[in-house]
């Protein structure tokens, strides 16, 4: 019977050592996973911040696109309106023009006068 108690004690010590080893291994694993989780939370917060910034930038670009598209549509409508007016009433189209001064001495006849030219803006 002496050996039976000895085997029981050895078995209990083995179970205790094995349990300690398993618990220690699990504790180290939990610490490792906790560290990984903290790093992932930090990375997630950074990504959230980046996404929020991108969404704000996209909204600003969308607003600019809407504004420029509206301006372009208005300009096209104005060009179309002016084109229609000029086709219907060509005698009533007024273009701002200027007469450049001649570099020669003025003469009394109009034969050598410079011609009227539309301004750069009108062109």
From TrEMBL:
Q: What is this protein called?
A: Lysis protein
Q: Which InterPro entries match?
A: I-spanin
Q: Where is the composition biased (Low complexity)?
A: 111-123
Residue numbers spanned by region Disordered: 98-123
Keyword Transmembrane present in the record's keywords: the answer is: yes
Q: Which UniProt keywords apply?
A: Membrane, Transmembrane, Transmembrane helix
Species of origin reads Proteus cibi
Q: Which residues cross the membrane?
A: 6-23
């Amino acid at each position: 019977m002496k050996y039976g108690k000895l085997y029981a004690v050895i078995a209990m010590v083995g179970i205790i050592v094995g349990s300690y080893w398993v618990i220690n291994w699990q504790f180290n694993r939990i610490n490792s996973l906790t560290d990984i989780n903290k790093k992932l939370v930090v990375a997630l917060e950074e990504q959230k911040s980046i996404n929020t910034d991108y969404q704000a930038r996209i909204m600003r670009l969308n607003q600019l696109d809407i504004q420029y598209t509206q301006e372009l549509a208005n300009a096209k409508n104005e060009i179309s309106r002016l084109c229609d007016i000029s086709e219907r009433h060509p005698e009533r189209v007024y273009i701002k023009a200027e007469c450049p001064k001649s570099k020669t001495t003025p003469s009394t006849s109009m034969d050598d006068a410079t011609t009227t030219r539309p301004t750069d803006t009108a062109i």
